[in-house]
Design brief:
Layout (H helix, E strand, L loop, with lengths): L8 H13 L3 H13 L4 H42 L4 H16 L3 E8 L4 E8 L4 H4 L2 E3 L3 H9 L3 E3 L12 H10 L3 E9 L6 E10 L7 H63 L4 H12 L2 E6 L4 E4 L22 H11 L5 H31 L3 E3 L2 E8 L2 E9 L6 H41 L5 H10 L8 E7 L5 H12 L5 E5 L2 E7 L5 H16 L4 E8 L2 H20 L6 E3 L5 H6 L5 H19 L3 H10 L4 H8 L3 H15 L6 H16 L3
Parallel strand pairs: 15-16
Antiparallel strand pairs: 1-2, 1-6, 2-3, 4-5, 5-6, 7-8, 7-11, 9-10, 10-11, 12-14, 12-15, 13-14
Helix pairs in contact: 1-2, 1-3, 2-3, 3-4, 3-8, 4-8, 8-9, 8-12, 9-12, 10-11, 10-15, 14-15, 18-22, 19-20, 20-21
């Protein structure tokens, strides 16, 4: 029986099935071998072999198409990432990861140029395990990456460690060796095209075994690098846009702030100007500035003493009235009253405390004057001791200063507003002072008539006083002040400033300044001491002030002036120049000079502590002192007259020493005490 050759049709059908199933090339190549073993005749076998070759070509074509499809999908995905770019790092990591996946390499990484350092550095890595490699920096021309960045061309090396085309350096080779890389492909990140393109970095794919990169792999990595360059450029553009928008927003905010500041300044200027035009007071200006700047404001005079305040700082008083240019935390007059009331053997500590308050006030005033001088020198407000101080000037004359509390930080608009407020304050103070000086000249004529002819027309003088705002029927203190002849004019000006705002009046009469001011509940000696201190500061020379009163009515005021003149003369004779006192405070001299000859007051002032002690304890200190003086200071004769032991006399004298103070047995004090004892005896004591 004859042998029939096997048909080629089954084998051809097998090729088609394998090709459709995507079988590997080995299975396709095995079909021709199976046909040969099956005994397919030569012509048909040639057909099977030809069909096998065609199937292999088709398979390769399909494989390339699928690969290209995968690459295009990756590129489209990358383009989508770029379109939705929010985070540059995320996009770059995605590109590097896709490069590693598409090329099938062990690692992929991206470097960027550092324009300031003049080299490149690792920006993103994928698949890297070496910290040394991840921190590499490459100079231009060094290694494969440096050459890519320098030439703007792709380079590939199947075995980098043995490739002599690149400039090997110790640091780069150490990093590559630590990572274990062998085959490396690098392509440039280019912005722009042609010769004008700028290299901003490079994209790499690398294997840890030798490998030759195909041209299509180089092209794919170049495409990904182009996308990376676009992403970086887009991110930079967006960053520049955001920066520009931020700068525009900041500029817009500055413009709005400046516009608001200008509007606020205009409104503030209008408000302050309206205050002046409506006849507002310094306290009104201080309140307005405090409201505008959200702080506490005080106005001080040229000597640093407060005129008014909106809060607890500055000592502006509780009645809302401006104090004269001698006010202190309560006023110098009240401070002196506290000192006067503290005088006495059992109140020495209180007197020292009150004197300390005045000293502290003087130091505070001096500190403010120093700050105001600094403000005048710089032509701006200055920050001193936790407060803003701005000089109030008339030309170069320091009228005072404006002080702001509670605003340690003051921006430029508020600072300019504060400085502008000082100008308004200076205008108001100048206007007030001009009016006060004019009124004072008119009132000075009234004072002159009061002192020279009080009995000529008393009712007319009282009526004139009322028209000028002075109620002569109200009790007043009369102060007579004198300084050196060279300072007479300064003393007259100082008197006007001192009485500014308190309802008093001054005039120059017979070479001395005469001040008439309403009683404030203290005494003429207290008022004289306060005036002496403040007038001395304002005039810049020692000023002696004698006080008299209270006096009401033309005749009483004239008599008070006469008493003040006598007291002033006595103070000079007694060496008490530069201070203040009244006749009652000059001891027996005051009794002789005073119009009322207050003998009881003199006795009480001199012997008061002893009289009070005897009355409370039933002792005989006054009698013992009288006996001691009567016996010429002999203890033996005194004890015989008193019929007591000498130790008792010594003990009583020790008690007298404690009550009257250590100077009780000085010649001057002895004279005062003996005269008081004699007057007390004559009065029935």
């Amino acid at each position: 029986m004859s042998h029939r050759p096997t048909s080629a049709a089954p084998h051809l059908r097998r090729l088609v099935e394998l090709l459709a199933a995507g079988a590997p090339a080995e299975e396709l190549g095995a079909v021709a071998a199976e046909a040969r073993r099956a005994g397919v005749d030569t012509p048909d076998l040639a057909e099977v072999e030809g069909a096998t070759e065609a199937a292999l070509r088709v398979r390769n074509t399909l494989r390339q198409h699928r690969r290209r499809e995968t690459e295009l999908t990756a590129l489209f995905d990358t383009a989508g990432d770029l379109a939705a770019l929010r985070d540059l790092d995320a996009v770059l990591r995605s590109i590097v990861r896709r490069a590693r996946m598409l090329l099938g390499t062990d690692t992929a990484y991206l470097t960027l140029a550092d324009e300031e350092a003049g080299d490149t550095y690792m920006r993103v890595t994928d698949g890297s395990v070496s910290e040394l490699f991840q921190n590499l920096r490459l100079q231009l021309g060094e290694g494969l990456g440096g050459l890519v960045a320098q030439t703007a061309r792709p380079y590939a090396s199947p075995d980098y460690r043995t490739d002599g085309r690149f400039l090997h350096t110790g640091s780069i080779d150490a990093g590559v060796l630590d990572e274990g890389l062998v085959a490396i492909l690098g392509v440039p990140l280019l912005l722009g095209s042609g010769s004008g393109g700028q290299v901003i970095g490079a994209l790499f794919a690398a294997d840890r075994t030798p490998r030759t990169f195909a041209p299509e792999e180089v092209a794919l990595l170049c495409s990904l690098a182009d996308h990376a360059a676009i992403a970086i450029d887009t991110a930079r553009t967006m960053a520049d846009a955001r920066l520009a928008l931020a700068e525009l927003a900041e500029a817009n905010a500055v413009i709005r702030e400046h516009s608001a500041a200008m509007q606020r300044a205009a409104e503030s200027h209008d408000r302050l100007t309206d205050l002046v035009l409506r006849g507002g007071d310094v306290s009104d200006v201080a309140a307005a500035v405090a409201g505008l700047l959200k702080g506490e404001v005080a106005v001080h005079d040229g000597a640093g003493w407060p005129l008014t305040s909106t809060g607890e700082h500055g000592g502006g008083g509780t009645d809302g009235r401006e104090h004269p240019a001698g006010a202190e935390e309560t006023t110098a007059v009240e401070g002196a009253a506290r000192v006067e009331k503290a005088v006495g053997a059992e109140e020495t500590a209180g007197a020292e405390k009150a004197a300390g308050v005045e000293t502290a006030g003087a130091e505070e005033a001096a500190a403010l004057v120093a700050a105001a001088e600094s403000s005048r020198a710089t032509a701006h407000a200055v920050f001193r001791d936790g407060r803003w101080v701005c000089a109030v000037l008339a030309g170069q004359e320091l009228l005072g200063c404006l002080v702001l509390y509670g605003r340690p930080e003051l921006d430029d608009p508020d600072r300019r507003l504060f400085e502008r407020s000082s100008v308004v304050t200076s205008l108001l103070l100048l206007l007030r002072r001009s009016v006060a000086e004019t009124e004072n000249r008119v009132r000075g004529d009234l004072i002159t008539d009061l002192l020279t002819a009080p009995d000529r027309d008393p009712a007319g003088l009282v009526a004139r006083g009322r028209r000028l705002g002075i109620d002569l029927d109200r009790p007043h203190f009369l102060l007579v002040a004198r300084a050196g002849d060279a300072a007479r004019e300064r003393l007259a000006d100082a008197a006007v400033q001192y009485l500014f705002g308190c309802g008093g009046v001054s005039a120059v009469h017979e070479g001395a300044a005469v001040l008439l001011l309403p009683c404030d509940g203290t005494g003429p000696g207290t008022a004289a001491r306060a005036a002496a201190g403040q007038l001395g500061r304002l005039a810049g020379v020692p000023v002696t002030v004698a006080g008299a009163g209270p006096a009401a009515g033309p005749r009483a005021i004239a008599d008070a002036h006469a008493e003040g003149v006598r007291c002033l003369r006595a103070m000079h004779v007694l060496g008490r120049d530069g201070g203040g006192a009244c006749a009652a405070e000059l001891g027996f001299v005051g009794v002789l000079l005073g119009d009322d000859h207050d003998v009881d007051g003199f006795v009480a002032a001199t012997l008061g502590p002893l009289l009070e002690y005897d009355a409370q304890r039933g002792t005989q200190l006054v009698r013992t002192l009288r006996a001691y003086f009567g016996c010429g200071g002999s203890l033996t004769r005194a004890k015989e007259e008193l019929h007591v032991h000498v130790n008792t006399v010594v003990q009583r004298l020790d008690r007298i020493h404690a009550l009257l103070g250590p100077g009780w047995n000085t010649p001057e004090q002895t004279l005062e005490l003996q005269l008081a004892l004699r007057l007390h005896l004559l009065s029935g004591g």
